[in-house]
Design goal:
The protein has about 325 residues and is an alpha+beta fold. The protein folds into two domains: about 220 residues, Rossmann fold; about 70 residues. It is about 35% helix and about 25% strand. It contains twelve helices and 17 strands. Strands 7-8-9-4-10-11 form a six-stranded mixed beta sheet, sandwiched between helices. Strands 1, 2, 3, 5 and 6 form a five-stranded antiparallel beta sheet that branches. A four-stranded antiparallel beta sheet has the order 14-15-13-16. Helix 3 packs across helix 4. It is elongated, with a radius of gyration of 24 Å.
Length: about 325
């Protein structure tokens, strides 16, 4: 699949820190690319560089196989729609009046404006003052402004931020529909469950570095779910001789606490064990006569793996 966006060694340094560090993105055409990362990980800075709003310190950006440079930006931006940070719009004007400002700025047709409003389901509300819009309607108006130019690429920074569940579902349904019509959507969010429901490709940032890029299936394959050992004698499992050579060195999570074997109500939870280590542990426990009721891998959500990748405990291969 050809790429809508590729970056090579994309880096942004400020005086006191490196916000984005050697980023190599590959956003497939026609996909919803979920851009994830903790607050301060560099997502917004990256998106601003992709739009030419912030100059990279180093690296290259290609959009639809063309280099994005200060000289080419004006020519390339008509194919890109965006909503960065808060949704735009003047509260004292109606939705349609706001869209007509966009129409005049971009020299668009009335048909394009009406189509954008229809796409985000705001046609019946277009004559209402924006200050009377719900937050979800304001977000949809911002997306309509981004769609008015009929872009091939849509870059959205936290489009569901602050929305209630119904508003989140509306935006999710809209983005899935747009991707179904061939528009590439790059969307950042801290709502991992929402990204999990809509994105076909994921990119995960941590401290400005890309720690994963690929499909959800590929992400889950890289994770090492915790082992849960259900037993009435958990201390026997925690015996250092029993675990010798089988458990990875303990890492510190975000709280600074070790993420090694731990007592839980059912028995013992152990992170980061390979299949071979689990088999050997079961053999050792059986030979020692330890009563085992169950040994299983704990199911992991996207959030669990995200926490692993961004340095908050657990194991990732």
């Amino acid at each position: 699949m050809s790429a809508a966006i590729t970056t090579s060694n994309l880096t942004k340094r400020f005086k006191t820190h490196v916000a984005v560090d050697s980023l190599n993105l590959d956003v497939p055409q026609g996909a919803i690319y979920g851009f994830l990362g903790p607050n301060g990980s560099g997502k917004s800075t990256t998106m601003k560089m992709l739009l030419g709003l912030t100059r990279p310190t180093e690296g290259e950006i290609r959009v639809f196989e063309q280099d994005l440079t200060p000289a080419s930006r004006t020519r390339m931006l008509p194919s890109i729609g965006s909503m960065i940070e808060a949704p735009p719009g003047y509260g004292h004007l109606t939705g349609l009046e706001n869209m007509r400002i966009v129409q005049d700025m971009l020299d668009l047709s009335a048909v394009q404006i009406e189509h954008a409003l229809e796409t985000v389901r705001l046609t019946e509300h277009k004559n209402k003052l924006v200050r009377n819009y719900s937050l979800g309607m304001k977000q949809r108006l911002g997306i309509a402004m981004a769609l008015a130019r009929d872009p091939a690429l849509l870059i959205l920074d936290e489009p569901t931020n602050g929305l209630d569940p119904a508003g989140i579902e509306e935006i999710r349904t809209l983005l899935i529909r747009l991707a179904g019509h061939g528009i590439t959507v790059m969307v950042s969010s801290h709502l991992l469950d929402e990204i999990d429901r809509m994105a076909s490709t994921l990119g995960i940032l941590s401290a400005g570095r890309l720690v994963f890029q690929g499909t959800r299936a590929e992400l889950m394959e890289r994770s090492v779910p915790d082992i849960l050992i259900v037993t009435p004698t958990p201390q026997a499992v925690l015996d250092p001789q029993t675990l010798a050579g089988l458990v990875p060195a303990q890492a510190s999570g975000a709280s600074g606490q070790p993420s090694g074997p731990a007592l839980v109500p059912q028995g013992v939870r152990i992170p980061g064990m390979s299949k071979g280590a689990v088999a050997e542990l079961i053999s050792r426990l059986a030979a020692a006569g330890v009563e085992l009721h169950e040994v299983r891998r704990e199911a992991q959500s996207l959030e669990d793996v995200f926490m692993d990748l961004t340095g908050r405990g657990g194991g990732v291969l």
